[in-house]
Design a protein that fits this description.
alpha/beta, 4-stranded parallel β-sheet, 5 helices, about 20% strand
Length: about 120
Amino acid sequence: MRAFDVSMKLLGFEYLDLYLIHWPVKGKNIETWKALEQIYAEGRVRVIGVSNFLRHHLEDLLAHCKIVPMVNQMEFHPRLVQQELIDFCKSHSIQYEAWSPLMQGKIFISRSCIHLLQV
């Protein structure tokens, strides 16, 4: 809660459109999610969600939450489609949001050139 309050003060905003738990941390997800539920209930954020949560992370969170995550931001691009996770999110009305949809620009480079970038 303190981090959220500091961010809001530094930004000078009355509310945020989207606030995410960036990474699942074992033993911290439930407590952190409850804080997000509180700031959502207070109207200080419009949408709350998670990032980098796989199905088992979401299942654990869903067993303890009052508000279902509205967004799950995951790496998604033509070479990484996690259809099972997409389907799970869809079945729980969790919007799947793409992170790195263009593979950080590498999608435009042919496979034969990718090894040059890695050298």
